[in-house]
Amino acid sequence: MLQQFTTSLRAFDDCLFGEENLARHFLAIVSLSDVYKKWETMASEDIKSTMEYKRKPSDRSEVYKKRRKIGYTDHTQDYIVRDVRRTLFETISSFKGNLEDDNEKARLIEDQLLALREAFRVPLESGEDGCQIVAKKLLDLYRTGRLGQYTLDSISCNSQ
After folding, report:
1. Using DSSP, how many helices (H) and how many strands (E) does the chain show?
2. What is the pLDDT along the chain (160 residues), one digit of tens a residue?
3. Among 15, 19, 34, 76, which residue's Cβ finds the most Cβ atoms within 10 Å?
4. Long-range CB contacts (< 8 A, 24+ apart) of 88-93?
5. How far apart are CA 114 and CA 109, in angstroms?
6. CB atoms near residue 92 (< 10 Å)
7. Count of C-beta atoms within a 10 Å radius of residue 110
8. Phi, psi at residue 87, to the nearest 5°?
9. Which superkingdom does the taxonomy of this entry point to (predicted)?
10. What is the C-alpha to C-alpha distance for residues 60 and 127, in angstroms, rounded to an integer?
């Protein structure tokens, strides 16, 4: 019963604030925190394994073969979660702007959303719907705790 209420409340919140706006808010919180720094070692290890995978197609292990069968776009798979973490780590750590400036922070978030399309395997041809798909998948990973524990309490709606 409580889970059904929580699910209904979540859908209600998403409807009021919008999934894309909520995802942008989440990315702002992640970018301003230091939590993403713990993904640094994961990012370098993942790059090595990805490079090895691309370099030795004849020596692919059963794990890599199963990935193709499991659903290449299933965003809950560990390898996609690692790609998302790596993408967030790389976009935040390579950002040279000022995160206190709202315009620069918005630019970083747009770059992150674009980069996350590749991590989530969302085709660029999907256009505007691609942002919605990325937002939905990102929020799903957030809600299941796969990207860390964050609270989105500081949401402020400025109605004009």
Report:
1. 7, 0
2. 334 434 444 554 555 578 999 999 999 999 998 888 888 876 666 554 444 444 444 444 555 445 444 555 577 688 889 999 999 999 999 999 999 999 999 999 999 999 999 999 998 887 778 899 999 999 999 888 888 776 555 444 554 4
3. 19
4. 88/27, 88/30, 88/36, 88/39, 88/112, 88/116, 88/147, 89/36, 89/37, 89/39, 89/40, 89/42, 89/43, 90/43, 90/115, 91/115, 92/30, 92/31, 92/36, 93/36, 93/37, 93/40
5. 9
6. 21
7. 13
8. -60, -45
9. Eukaryota
10. 33
Place of tokens 């209904």: 8
The residue type at 42: M
- Encoded tokens for 143: 């809600």
Helices 19-32 and 78-93, axial angle in degrees (round to 10): 60
Cα Rg of the chain, angstroms: 17
Positive or negative: CA dihedral 22, 15, 129, 102:
negative
Instruction: Please report, as a single letter, which amino acid is at residue 155.
Output: I
- Using a 10 angstrom Cβ sphere, with 0-12 exposed, 13-18 middle and 19 or more buried, the burial of residue 104 is middle
CA 131, 154, 151: angle at the middle one, nearest 5?
A: 75
8 A C-beta contact, residue 120 and residue 73: yes
